[in-house]
Amino acid sequence: MSLIHSKGFKYFKNFVIGVGAAVVMVGALMKITSHPLGNIFITVGLITEAVLFFMLGILPPEKDYYWEKLYPGLDMHNSNLIPMSGGVVEGEVARPLNAEQVENQLGGMLGELQNMSSSLGSLQALQEIDFSETKNQLETASNFYANLNEAMSTLNETVEDTRMYKDQMATLNRNLSSLNSVYGNVLSAFTVKA
User: Fold this and answer.
1) At which of 15, 43, 58 does a domain end?
2) Contacts of 48 (CB under 8 A, 6+ apart)
3) Which residue from 91, 72, 75 is spatially nearest to 83, judged by alpha carbons?
4) Per-residue pLDDT of the chain (194 residues; tens, 9 = 90+)
């Protein structure tokens, strides 16, 4: 591969063109604002640009791509294009495109492109999700469920204690009823004798 077609040379050429254009712009700005270095900058920039244009005039052009070989009729204005379904048979005149057939094919391709676009949009949205806080959120949820389980077991113990308290109160109530009847009998016995 020759030097002028190498990647490094192309990079160097673009770099020098960019720097030369920047120097010309700075020189023009300095000249417009009457800066003392304006003449020097614009002279250096214009000489650099002249050398670059000379160099570009000597270098061979980049390779051209002949798209009309791939797409016949691309370079001819007002030409009859061949149908998409087939080529021109020798001796036959090129037929115009069937508009309905082209529209159907383009409609199908448009649908596929829309599906691909929505799929890519979904992938992009998934890519933009920030999962950095997910670990903290999972730990917080885990702590919440642990505390909830602990509260539920405490509540179950409380329910059991409440049931036992209710049973004890019922027993105490029966004992008080018995005690009241005994006390009532004792009072009646004292009242009858007196």
Assistant:
1) 58
2) 16, 19, 20, 23, 24
3) 72
4) 577 778 888 888 888 888 888 888 888 888 899 989 888 888 888 888 888 888 888 887 777 777 777 666 666 666 555 555 555 545 555 555 566 776 777 777 777 778 888 877 777 776 666 666 777 888 888 888 888 888 888 888 888 888 888 888 889 888 888 888 888 888 888 776 65
Would 175 be classed as within a structural domain? yes
As a whole number of angstroms, the distance between CA 166 and CA 174 comes to 12
Q: How far from 27 is each of 17, 19, 54, 94, 146, CA to CA, in Å?
A: 15, 12, 21, 59, 72
pTM score of the predicted model: 0.32
Q: What is the dihedral of CA 118, 123, 124, 128, to 10 degrees?
A: 140
Domain finish residue from 37, 58, 79: 58
Distance CA 52, CA 15 (A): 11
The reply to whether 187 falls in a domain is yes
Residue 29 located in a structural domain: yes
Structural domain boundaries enclosing 185: 151-194
Distance CA 28, CA 45 (A): 9
